[in-house]
C-alpha cells in the first residue's frame, strides 16, 4: 500500500500495485493542493499505467488525464514535457486539435527565445520554420536521414570492387549519392577533397576488399557474418535449427569494434555492412558552426532502410552503425535511462528522444544488427554501454607482420611508383602501426612524389627515404622502429651524398 504524505507525494512502498485510477485520484488531489508540477507528472504516470494495463484500448479517464497533463505543461511553460505529452496524445487527436497543439508548442518556443532578448516582431519570420522543426508538420523527423556517399575513396586505399558479392542485390551505377550533411547544422562535406573523410573509406566494401584484417574477418565468419552463400554453413544452420527446435540462429549481440585507430574499426564496419547487404543507417556526432554537438543520421541512397511511419523504428531487417562512439556526448544526468524511464525521456529534446528511441528499438529488434566503433585508448560514457546491452566488444589489434605485408603488396600493385622499395623493410619499419597509418603514409609519399614530378617535368617515383620519412612520422619517438627508420634515412642520405661527390669528381677530371 502506498501512502501519501501531506504534500500528496507518493511514498516508495509497493508502487507496482497502484492502478491508473489511483494515480488519477492523486493527480486531482495534487492539483487541488496547488502542486501543478506533481499533478502533471501523476496524470502522465496514470496514462502510462493505463497503457500497460489496457494495451491499445486506453480508458477515457486516462486520456482525459493525459489532456490535463498537456494543459498543465503548457501553463507551466514546460516545453520539453509538453512535447513528450503531445507525442502520446497525438494518435487520439483530430487534425484540427493537432494544429492547435502545434501552435501552442510554437508559442512555448517563442516564449523561450524571448528570454534571450528577442522580440516577437523579430521572430515572426521564423515561426513557420520553428513549427515545422518542432512538430515535423512536413512529415519528416526532427532527426532526419540524409544520404551518405558510397563512392568516396581515400587516396592510397585499394579500390573496392564494383559489384557486391553474396548479397543478391545488383549495384545501380547510375545512382547519385549525396554527401552527408548534419541533421541540424547543414554542415557539408565534399567528395572532391583529397583529405580523408573520417568514417568513409570506399564504395560498397565487402570482406573480399579488405586487406590486413584476416583475423577479424575469420572471427566474424565464425559468427555467421558473410556466410550467406556458403552451402556447408547453411546446411549446418538448418541442422542446428531442426535439432534445437528453433526457427533461426540466435540474434547477435550489439557489437563494439575498438582499434588503435578508429578509422580501422570504421572501415571494417563498412565492409561488414557491405557483406550483409542490408539497408543501413549511420549515426555519428559532429560539431556545428557554433561548436555545439550535433547528431548526424544518414542512409545509403540506393539501399535505404524502411522505418515505421511516424516513429524512428526499423521496419524489417537492417543495420544501425554508431560511428566513433567514444566521441559521443551522453545526455546530461547521472542516472541511466532504465532508472528514470519515461521521466528521463521527457527531459530530452525531441530530436534526442528520437535518436535514443531508434537505438533502443534496433538493439531490441532481432532482425537489426547494431555495430559501433571506437578507439582503444579512449573512454565511452557508461550511458551508451547501458543503451547497447547485451554488448560484445571486438578488439581489432594492430596488423601482424603477414597482414602488413599484404597491405604493402596491395599498395605496390595499385601504385607502380612504389614498387622499387624493399617490401621486407616496409614490413619491419611499420610494426605496431594501424592499417590507417600505413595508407596515410603511402598517400603522403605518393602526393609528394607526384608534386616533385610536376616541378621537374619528369617522372619521379616514390623514394625509399620519402616513404620512410612518412612512416617515421607515425611511429612513437621512443620506439625501436623510429630509431631504425631514422638510421635508414640517414644512411640513404649519406649514400646519395657519396654518389654526388663521385659525380663532382668525375666532372673535375
Structural features, described:
The protein has 509 residues and is of the alpha/beta class. The chain is built from 19 helices and 7 strands. It has helices spanning 20-32, 36-54, 60-75, 79-89, 95-114, 120-123, 127-135, 214-222, 231-244, 262-276, 337-340, 342-346, 350-364, 382-388, 401-414, 423-429, 435-456, 464-474, 480-508; strands at 146-148, 254-259, 280-287, 293-300, 318-322, 368-375, 391-396. It has a 7-stranded mixed β-sheet with strand order 1-4-3-5-6-2-7, with helices on both faces. Helix 2 (36-54) runs antiparallel to helix 3 and helix 18 (464-474) packs antiparallel against helix 19 (480-508). The longest helix is centred in the C-terminal third of the chain and has 29 residues, at 480-508. Mean pLDDT is 75; it is low at 1-15, 126-156, 159-202 and 337-343.
Quick structural overview:
48% of the residues lie in helices and 9% in strands. Helix 2 packs antiparallel against helix 3.
